[in-house]
Amino acid sequence: MNKTALLLLALFSTPALAEEVGEVSTTFKLLSPNDKVVVEAFDDPSVEGVACYVSRAKTGGYKGAVGLAKDPSRFSVACRQVGAIRFRGPLPAQQQVFKEGASFVFKHVRVVRIVDVKRNVLTYLTYSDKLIDGSPDNAITAVAVLDQKIPMQK
Could you give the strand order of the β-sheet that contains 121-130, starting from the edge strand earlier in sequence? Predict the structure, then answer.
């Protein structure tokens, strides 16, 4: 793949969209939605055969019902090999692979893939950011690639 094609792929590639796998209520609210923990799954957009699962707290209540609540920065991530690993092209050393809003505006949950070239491992870091003040809360997981070398962008 030439450099122009790689640049276009990077410009037009978007983070993966998640699908909700399940949820559990953590706080009962009589007249409005409960607070809950949601589990979402997404496939790495550049690496076939790797799926990630993110669990995160979602605020209920009236603000949560209309999308105005600010969700807490509490989450976890687990990425696993779910099939044969195939790379759609060379990977950058670090790339955002998932982003989802955690408040009406300004706050997001993100997952970034960081390649550990020395150990031939894909690491996935989840964290949240805000326009003014992000959170140091984070979680990490890793997927070892045992049968091939991870192709890297130069």
Answer: 94-101, 107-116, 121-130, 138-144
